[in-house]
Amino acid sequence: MAIIVGTGDFKYRIIVDWAKLPDGWSFKEVGAVGVDTKDNVYVFNRGDHPVMVFDRAGNFLRSWGEGQYPRAHGVHMGPDDSIYLTDDGGHFVRKCSLDGRVLLEIGVPGKPAPYMSGFNIVHNICTDADGWVYVADRENHRVQVFDGNGKYETQWNNLHRPCGLYMDYTRHPVCYIGELGPVQPVNRNSPNLGPRVSIVDHQGKLLSRFGDMHAGTAPTAFLGPHGLSVDSRGDLYVGEVSWTQWPQFYPDTPRPAYIRSLQKYERVR
Q1: Of the candidates 167, 183, 195, 198, which has an alpha carbon nearest to the alpha carbon of residue 260?
Q2: How far apart, in Å, are the Cα atoms of 258 and each of 25, 66, 246, 261, 262?
Q3: How much is the pTM?
């Protein structure tokens, strides 16, 4: 029987084991996901093959980046058939062609620079066609919104450690938010705080939300939704940093050999 999650106009059918990896390969965990104009899916992961590419049916197409990305973190798809990758272990950003050729590099790999910010662990950023900027301010439990000149406009609350952000580049976009949920001993067992995915309109109004009451490994649950993307049909792809999150939720339980770190959610219309 199909598993349906979400509410209202944003309901999804869970596609279990969507990605067909080559024998013996593993994501380990997924920092981010991107989708190109042909609906091919780019999975930026922390395994031995950092960028794995699949078609929308989950068939493996190719990989690249082996040995070049210490710790996958973020993905942004450029309007010119390019992909931007951020690596928080290597301390760099790269713009690449879709076959992995490096076109631009910002930062010096392996050499972190001093960091100053008025935020508390900024985790992702999006912009819309009106020039507004949306920032996932993770440990302040909010998304801050600025105009194109950096003027603070508003913030979205009722979130818990928002991490991944995705929105189409359009006016009045819908925003998809991955929330990591509580991990401190004092609150990790508190219900209904995530991990979860929330979908809001351009003013922060909640449209849909899914994820179990607590962290878990069931198809309907999450451990660490860290990167999200949506294809041309409205299907949602969620990458999770499950390997990292496991000991925070289950400090007395060794990690299993396999922990799910990617799932596809097919839009139900």
Answers
A1: 195
A2: 11, 21, 11, 9, 12
A3: 0.93
